Amino acid sequence: MIRLSSPGFAIYPRFQNNHFVKSQKSTFLPAQIGSRRRNFTGIRSETGGDGFDSVAYESERLSLDAAAMEDMAETAKKEMESDTDSDPKAWKWVIRKKMWDLMEARNYSMNPRPVHHRIPNFIGASAAAGKLAELEAFRKANVVKVNPDSPQKQIRFLTLSGDKKLLTPQPRLRTGFFSVLESGLLKPETINEACTSVGVAKYGRAIGLDEKIKVDLIVIGSVAVNPQTGARLGKGEGFAELEYGMLRYMGAIDDSTPVVTTVHDCQLVDDIPLEKLAIHDVPVDIICTPTRVIFTNTPIPKPQGIYWDKLSPEKLQQIRILRELKKRLEKEIGRKLPTGPAEKLPPRAGRKRR
Prior knowledge:
This is 5-formyltetrahydrofolate cyclo-ligase. The protein is α/β, with parallel strands linked by helices.
């Protein structure tokens, strides 16, 4: 077992010299990002055709993602400078930073680089996707929800090429909720493009909270995950948890819906303390690495929805679909739902409008 500079942070080694060795109630407060939103649906090609300007869309997406990562870097710095005993989120940033630093230093990740504030596009992601595709849960699934990050692109491809429906969130929930893609509605030559953010926007069908859909398998990205407990850390924006909570509201998933993650072997850690996890943290049932499959038998309860009493009004204001859901629930129950404490979001960098 390899240990990093800080005591208590361990990874499970199944690799050497960058090559893989064959295996022998609650708190809910997602980390914050600045709101730099524009209407992607307004991007249209001036050249005609299908009316979708892929270049403009991708340029805008990359710009907004870069801005979001700048904000997350500021948030991480602020959290790590606080007292890890008193700040309920600081310890997560410590683990994330160590993992990002490790993967950068040892070149365990492909582009985009650097890996900081991303779900790392780890070397061997396609091999891990192959192991996931061999799972009975995947083979029997009709609808698979997959995160939009780079290391899970092959999983999105295997989902569509396997005649399954792909459910994937719109980028950072900026413009809506989820998009559904069906291989039967795609030309064979467009399936690979449909696995990208541009392709999802181009070929996907946007859905809302009223969509009647049953999700058979959830795939999420991770920065670090404990193979013994299924405890997982994402990149700190909280979208996997928000998406999970909204799918629970829709009745699309329940406690029995398997949650799977794919990671590099170095991303397996043993120092995510169960007692510090919040009720919104989504545990994983299965971990697929390039070298093995791990069934965690996680003891961690899965979230039952959105925890409004801890969700700040600033975060709520950033995401339209969340505001829609809260308004709908308040109408159903005939009273106002609680609101979490206000907080100061990271400052926004200036941007010129095109």
